[in-house]
Amino acid sequence: MTPTEIESLFATPEGYRFARWSRPIVPVVFGVDDQSLGVLKSAIEATVFAAGHRMAETDPELGANLMMFFLRDWQELAALDNLDRMIPALDTLLPKLEAEDALQYRTFRFSPDGGIQACFVFLRMAGDLADQPAAELGLEQAVKSVLLWGQGAFADRSPLARPEGGDAVLRADIAALLRAAYDPVMPVAAEDASHALRLAARLQVSGG
Question: What DSSP designation does 123 have?
């Protein structure tokens, strides 16, 4: 993966922006049955460990800091207690999601050091999203939640690969990029595109 390709993955309208988790990840999943819950949490765990990061049983400030909500329609958000405390301007967000016929929405909260403190993921189970196997869905959502990617990062190509006749797995280049991003020598946050050069250098060192 070239520095230019890496830079494009973290491009925003305001410029380059990168962030990774600065604390252990504590996931909680709402709106699924017990069987799907186990599959989804296993996919999250596999992604976190692939990145070389950590998980924990509880977050000292938030209890859980990676929250995934599975919904039938966006109006279900309005019925969730205290959600407006986690998601600013919820009353204006809901009409926007409905008007766009959106299937997913993700928002982050950040620590003073710029690292990811919390992530909230909302998935409306319709269309292509509803057809994805739980393991594949969990893997894809975990990848999208362990780093602050640019809006167009996976617009043209999924972060997953599906070996012929096998289950979906992380693309090798994305797995290598996750490991480079979580290398202890790398910063938890960056807003200079030179950071992409450093990531590319880490990929070369690791052979990714």
Answer: E
**CA distance linking residue 149 with residue 131, whole number of Å:** 24
- Report pLDDT digits (tens) over 46-105: 999 999 999 999 999 889 999 999 999 998 888 887 777 778 778 888 899 999 999 999
Give every CB contact of residue 105 below 8 A, 6+ residues apart in sequence. 93, 97, 121, 122
Q: Report the alpha-carbon distance of residue 141 to residue 85 in Å, rounded.
A: 23
User: What residues contact 194, with CB distance under 8 A and at least 6 apart?
Assistant: none
What's the pTM?
Answer: 0.92
Alpha helices in the chain (DSSP H): 3-9, 34-51, 83-86, 90-99, 127-131, 134-146, 172-181, 194-206
Q: Which residues of 67-97 are buried (b: 16+ CB within 10 A; e: fewer)?
A: bbbbbeebebbeeeeeeeeebeeeeebbeeb
**Residue type at 14 in one-letter notation:** E
CA dihedral 110, 111, 114, 115 (to 10 degrees): -80
Other beta carbons within 10 angstroms of residue 8's beta carbon come to: 14
